[in-house]
Specification:
Layout (H helix, E strand, L loop, with lengths): L12 H12 L4 E6 L4 E6 L5 E6 L3 E2 L1 H10 L5 E4 L5 E2 L1 H10 L2 E4 H7 L4 H5 L8
Parallel strand pairs: 3-5, 4-6, 5-7
Antiparallel strand pairs: 1-2, 2-3
Helix pairs in contact: 2-3
C-alpha cells in the first residue's frame, strides 16, 4: 500500500538497508558508496559503477523521472523500493532512451549482473 507521509517518496530505512545488504552480499558487487540517503553508487567487479537513485514512489511516472533526472542528471538507475511499487511503461521507455535503468527492488538485484542493453532491458525470469 502506498504511504502518505514521510516515506511517500523516500525509501523506508529498512528497505534501503536491505537493498544495500543484498548488494554487498552479491558476487558481482565490490562495494556500495552511500552518496546521500537516496543516492548510492554501486561498484561492480569488471563493470561500470551504477549511480542509483532510491525512491518509494508507488508508481514511478514519466513526471517522476523528469524530476529525479533534473535533480540528478548523472544517474545510471532509478529503483523504486517497496515490494508493491512499480513504474509506468512510459517512464521505463523514457529511462531507456536516457540510458538509465528503471527497476523495482528485485529487478535491480538481477540487473546489476549486466551492463549496456542487457542492464537497461533486464527483466527477471518468468516463474511457474
Amino acid at each position: 500500500m502506498p504511504e502518505h507521509g514521510c516515506y511517500e517518496k523516500v525509501p523506508r530505512p529498512e528497505s534501503r538497508e536491505s537493498l544495500i545488504n543484498y548488494l554487498k552480499g552479491s558476487q558481482v558487487i565490490d562495494g556500495v558508496e552511500e552518496l546521500s540517503y537516496q543516492v548510492i553508487n554501486v561498484i561492480r567487479d569488471g563493470k561500470p559503477a551504477v549511480k542509483t537513485f532510491l525512491t518509494n514512489v508507488y508508481v514511478v511516472s514519466i513526471a517522476d523521472v523528469y524530476v529525479i533526472m533534473g535533480e540528478h542528471p548523472d544517474l545510471n538507475a532509478i529503483v523504486t523500493m517497496s515490494a508493491w511499487n512499480g513504474y509506468s511503461n512510459e517512464a521505463k521507455q523514457d529511462c531507456k532512451l536516457r540510458g538509465v535503468g528503471l527497476f523495482t527492488f528485485k529487478e535491480f538485484l538481477g540487473a546489476v549482473w549486466y551492463k549496456g542493453p542487457r542492464f537497461l532491458n533486464y527483466t527477471p525470469p518468468e516463474r511457474d
